[in-house]
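Allow me, if you will, to draw on your knowledge of protein folds for a short while. I have a record of one protein: its chain in single-letter code and its fold written as discrete structure tokens. I should value your view on which stretches of the chain appear to form regular backbone elements. Thank you for your consideration; the sequence and its tokens are set out here:
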Amino acid sequence: VQLQASGGGLVQAGGSLRLSCTASGRAYSTFIMGWFRQAPGKEREFVAAISRSGDTAYYADSAKGRFTISRENAKNTVYLQMNSLKPEDTAVYYCAASSMYRSLSDNDLRYDYWGQGTQVTVSS
């Protein structure tokens, strides 16, 4: 499975971006999908995850109310809509796929496939 993330860029505080992550390979609809981010000098952190069917989502506290994760299994794609962006959201955002677990998780060890990352920069 290969994951290709896109949609990052430079945006002013208060603005919006939508990230996309398209998967190639087998059985995308059987994967739990997640988004993580890593800011310079910081550890990678969980942002959001979505169930296989797309009917359940799980968010980090920092993302609740501002970010929305969704997926289109017919397009092998997961999205992260980010609104009301803040400078502290600046990071490289990674999509990830979990093939072996059934429950949503914020633990990056449960994700076995990773995209290459897309840079999001929020200016103040």
